[in-house]
Amino acid sequence: MDYSKAGLRKEEYEALRERLGREPNDLELQIMGVMWSEHCSYKSTKALLRTFPKEGKKVVLGPGENAGVVDAGDGLGLAFKVESHNHPSAIAPYQGAATGVGGIIRDIMALGARPVASMDGLFFGDPEDRKSQALSDGVVKGIGGYGNCVGVPTVGGTTFYHPIYRDNPLVNAFCAGVVPIDSIVSSQTAKAGQEVLILGSKTGRDGIAGAAFASTELAEDGSGMPSVQIGDPFAEKLLIEACLELRDKGLLVSMQDMGAAGILSSSSEIAAKSGVAMTIDFDAIPLRAEGMEPWEIALSESQERMLLIVEPEKVQSVMDVADKWELDCAVIGHTEPGDRYRITWKGETVADMPASVIGSDCPEIPWASKVPSDLENRQALDLNDLDMPKDWNETLLSMMSSTAHRSRKAIYQQYDSMVQTNTVVGPGSPVSVIRIEGTNRLAAMTMESQPYLCWLDPYNGSAEIVARSCRPLAVAGAEVAGATDCLNFPSPEKPEQFWTLSRSVAGLADGCTALNCPVVSGNVSLYNETSEGAIFPSPLVGTVGFIECPSRMVRSGSWAEGDRIFYVSYGEPSLAGSSYLMKAKNLIAGKPLGFAPKEEADFMDKALATAKESIPSSGRAIAGGGLAVALAKEAAESGLGAEIEISMDRQDVSLFGEGGPRAIYAVPANKVERFTAIWGDRAKEIGTVKGDRLSIKSVLDLTVKSIAESWGI
Description:
By secondary structure, this protein is of the alpha+beta class.
């Protein structure tokens, strides 16, 4: 077989041949083409990912496992991770999204954790475009269809619309789970002399070589597309309970989800990480399709399967648990001393390579990097060229009804956000919050992405993403514990695009370092482009924090009559990359604000102090749409108006500018003195909650009802 047909570059083939000391056979070439693909090896980003901060006072388990774990208190850990399922969702939106949900749930299960919450990050084309409508409809139904049936609540997420995602939508799935810290199951603890088992669904031909497919651009004619995986949420529910029972009975040495590259990836990764040899007997694997060849068995991505490492004397007990939950289970191999990975089939050894070569030896690629030639033009923005709207009432209502800000109720109403009955704050709020059973704490979660900002300035745009994910947590009273990221980018092979990727990762790393937000897990999805062009740089960050006392949680949209409204700010915002500029002028331009770590840290400290003393009735970090949209959302959710008076140099910038640490608080009159003592001159009183109209003196005056209707709540 030609190595290039297997997906290997010449340099990779030569490195493989040197490590093996011989020519690889056809099966070995097919195996390595997938395992050394971008999707499995991260060969383009390994060097970049090393720059992320990974240590923190709450970190129990960082990158290198199926998910990260942070300390949730009382002996419990919160495991969480975000994964992409972009390419499959582009060709089969329902199953692509559904299996994305199932896959991320199994990543959490692999640590011995019970999945307790999901979120999703979705990027679609113009919602008025018929193809985009079909894709988004299928994706949302797939997420709901799988998540609702499997019994994990979908508590939040983010959705972004722009025509650039028409042919290449993005589907990023997040899951969090709870696990006793002393019961965490690792993928790195196998030892020689143990049995290898497969638990769950039978292996078929669905999803074969999906990892390699996700490592290339989407072809317009559909060529190279594999069959997309088919999910069964009811089988997954049984698998969850079975894995938890195996954990509780102490029957597991190690466990790994069978995701990308299926049996091959899960087994070779455990062998490589654990430093043991492994032999897998393909004749012992339960199949649901006749006549499957070894390469098909190795690379099948059939869903709802887990790989287990078990002590020989405990195998029967594992089988008994599998029988109880009506799941297939079979011994398919064993571990040995050494560094070999062997596959046997029909009594013969058909592949034999060092496990370390498969799992960790892919050569990294130092792609060429070049500043985009049009970057200066992108950042050019003269405010004097922007006409002011004639009617600010109409402008605010159009912003509230725009694709950037309109309520996502039509999406999240299709999800079960209350199953498990631990959801405190569900979809539609700046922060999603769940109870952690067995403790008095709450876990708070956010999800954030800013493609416009990253296209204009990948470094500062990405740092702003981190800040935007942390600010709402602090306002709610949650101390940040850690983050997970999904790097959605086009091909790294183009120098300008690799420069953007590199600068974006630098911004994420510096932002996380400055805000004490370690990155404990994540995913990379490259080659998100078609013949029509590349997506915007679209890194996504999911951040988790904890609220120690539920009674001190600060909600948004909970104004009370007579509350005094304060505007917290650390400087003027900017229209660069703002939703206002896009909506009003159909323009993506400007130089985003520079990241200000000291100001961000001070904002978070003061916000946490404000929540700890239970001062405000309501609080909202200002994000997309700026001050005006934040006030409008607070009024609409509260069902109360306000009289606002603020000084403005430029009304469009003051009302709709974005960026930097800023927030709106509603404070009862008897707590104003304490609030101002905390914030000092960073807080300015700008109005009072009263009546059923939101008015900004000499600018706009709208009924709360009209705002809510435009917003769609």
